[in-house]
Amino acid sequence: MTRVKRGVMANKRRKKVIKKAKGFLNARSKKYKAAKEALMKAGTYAYRDRKVKKRTMRALWQIRINAKAREFGLSYNRFIHALKLAKIEIDRKILSELAIEDPKIFKNIVEKAKENIK
What we know:
Blueprint: H1 8-20, H2 32-71, H3 76-85, H4 92-101, H5 103-114
């Protein structure tokens, strides 16, 4: 029976892991076991933080809207409530962009919303 040299696939697999870990510090980018562990951790963080990113962006939009709405004498929650009463359906992302990039339109929206506050 002929001799079979093994290790080709194992080396390929290890090289793939090391390549993915490129840019990690110290042993995490050089040694297979450390690189594999680092990649597993990185994967969990990436999965978790894709969800967290959405939360932090919404919080940022709320902060921006609050800051701009206070210039017109409304707090964030009163402003959002007034928008709902006025049946103005603009999401927070667009509102925050308007507050930064186009203050005139944002002011018009605030005025419309203020009309519906009791």
